[in-house]
Design a protein that fits this description.
By secondary structure, the chain is of the alpha/beta class. It folds into 3 domains: 104 residues, 3-Layer(aba) Sandwich (Rossmann fold), CATH 3.40.50.2300; 68 residues; 143 residues, Heat Shock Protein 90, CATH 3.30.565.10. It is 48% helix and 20% strand. The protein has 9 helices and 14 strands. A hairpin with a 2-residue loop joins strand 9 and strand 10. The longest helix has 62 residues. The chain is elongated.
């Protein structure tokens, strides 16, 4: 494991000794005679490891180490303090300064070379991980840009299809009952696809902080009631018991309404035919709370955080796959922007309870 080593020592003889040891192992070596020169050398070429003397005139090794570890560009470079100081306080000071290791004088050459090798290996591994992270970040950015572009491009033809279906529906009185029902389903599905596209675009805006909240005083129970009325439940029964008093919060009614609708749609999707979804709103000590309880496969404890990630999937207790698409990601981003919290727990008797908490008004 070969690397570039910076040797910092105010004594030329010490620097020569370390250079000869390092040269013999195939490392490239740079030298600095004081702390200021060491910082300039690091800025000129980032080393894989720094051998840093502690007792130097002017800026000592502790201060040089603190400055290196305080900078994002040099914090990951391993620093090995080389010192004749052996008191406990000096070791603690070195650790406090951020040193990765301490080497005591007189130097044991075999011990030092092993420490240098290990430090270089750790540094190069860190560099590879950083490079892979940059590549993954770039790939994710390209993917998000592609999804954003496709979502924009899909909006226009989808709006055209929806408009055509609405015009056909105006003459639905001349259609057989079965055909009219199919038409209603087609309209409902196009609206659902439009909502999904809206989620894609809004998630991007929320992640980028480009969707300002339009806050006003509102009744969370009224939003939940609107969501229940406007949701197509099919053969699933939605049980909604409104609270006896308003549950007031400060929030964006459009975004919060969509959050409740998304949670309700998700619960209906994973509840079997003839099952029941329960929606409740209450004021509790922790804030204004909305719960949506389904009779689906449930969400394993280990997947309850990641299910709010983009396109996450979790296996339920029956090993069926529960996909959140972007709906739950949208919910989390909106609730986070409101200073609230969102999560999921086991429901009594099976299924899941998705909940959100908002600060009281």
């Amino acid at each position: 494991m070969k690397g570039h080593v910076l040797v910092v020592d105010d004594h030329a003889g010490n620097r020569l000794l370390l250079r000869e040891l390092l040269d013999a192992q195939g490392h490239t070596v740079a030298e600095a005679a004081d702390g200021a020169s060491a910082l300039l050398a690091v800025a000129d070429r980032l080393p894989d490891v720094i051998l840093l003397d502690v007792q130097m005139p002017g800026m000592d090794g502790f201060e040089v180490c603190r400055r290196l570890k305080a900078s994002a560009g040099t914090a990951a470079v391993p620093v090995l303090l080389v010192t004749a100081l052996s008191a406990r306080e000096d070791r603690i000071e070195g650790i406090r300064a951020g040193a990765n290791d301490l080497v005591t004088k007189p130097i044991d050459s075999a011990d030092l070379m092993l420490r240098v090798r290990n430090a270089i290996q750790a540094r190069q591994l860190h560099a590879r991980v950083e490079a892979q992270y940059r590549d993954l970040t770039q790939m994710e950015r390209l993917r998000d840009n592609l999804v954003h572009m496709l979502a924009h491009d899909l909006r226009s033809p989808l709006a055209g299809v929806h408009a055509i279906l609405e015009m056909v529906q105006m003459d639905a009185g001349t259609l057989p009952a079965e055909s009219a029902a199919f038409l209603d389903d087609a309209l409902r599905l196009t609206r659902r696809v439009a909502d999904m596209i809206g989620d894609m675009l809004d998630v991007s805006r929320l992640e980028a902080g480009r969707m300002p909240l339009k806050l006003r005083a509102l009744d969370l129970a009224a939003l939940a009631a609107d969501a229940v009325r406007g949701t197509y439940a099919g053969s699933v029964h939605v049980e909604w018991r409104p609270p006896t008093v308003p549950v007031d919060v400060m929030g964006d009614p459009k975004l919060l309404g969509r959050v409740i609708t998304n949670l309700l749609d998700n619960a209906i999707k994973f509840t079997g035919k003839g099952g029941t979804v329960r929606v409740a709103v209450a004021r509790e000590a922790r804030g204004a709370v909305v719960t949506v309880t389904d009779q689906g496969p449930g969400v394993p404890a280990e997947a309850r955080d990641e299910i709010f990630d983009k396109f996450a999937q979790a296996a339920g207790a029956d090993q069926s796959r529960r996909s959140s698409g972007l709906g739950l990601t949208f919910c989390k981003l909106v609730i986070d922007a409101h200073g609230g919290a969102i999560g999921v727990d086991d429901a009594p008797g099976g299924g899941s309870t998705f909940w959100l908490v908002l600060p009281p008004r």
